[in-house]
Write a structure and sequence with these properties.
Blueprint lengths: L2 E7 L2 H13 L4 E4 L15 E6 L3 H9 L2 H10 L3 H12 L2 H18 L11 H36 L16
Antiparallel strand pairs: 1-3, 2-3
Helix pairs in contact: 2-3, 5-6
Amino acid sequence: MGVVTLRTYWSSSEAALAKSLLDNYGIVSALIHENASLYVWPPMAMPIRLIVVEDQAEEASRLLQGDLEGAAALEERAPQPFDAAREKEQLDRPWELLIIAFFFFVPGICVLLIKYPARFAETSLGRYLIAKVAIFHMFGWLAIAFALFLVALFWYAQRWPMTEGLDEPNSTGGD
């Protein structure tokens, strides 16, 4: 699978607009020599090349020419199986749960590292401070427990596939 130069541009804004159009339709493309005007004198000495994957060159050419119906017909002829698989993979992996678990676990560990005050242990102030730290440690343990719950929920979601049609009525009867 190679790449081909689809068009060349002298204006970086036109090239960026064309690449943006192709990106919106899911066509893999790139701009070559996009910032060459910053390093070469005179500024317009090197054109900006828009390259695309060979498999998508015809569809990209039709899109850039404004033939949206022809591009749609090409897209219908050659469905892209990667998009559906990637979308299903993203649905099956709720990585946000792990991120949230991290943000509960780390502060929970930090709270547990707080030491009990030993200097004033016999005074009423010391007993008060020890009680405060003990309560604070309880919140640390709760944060760690919640983080572990989120990790378990993540692995549960990984292991069991998502069932489709959850909003359909139960067909087993009942009444």
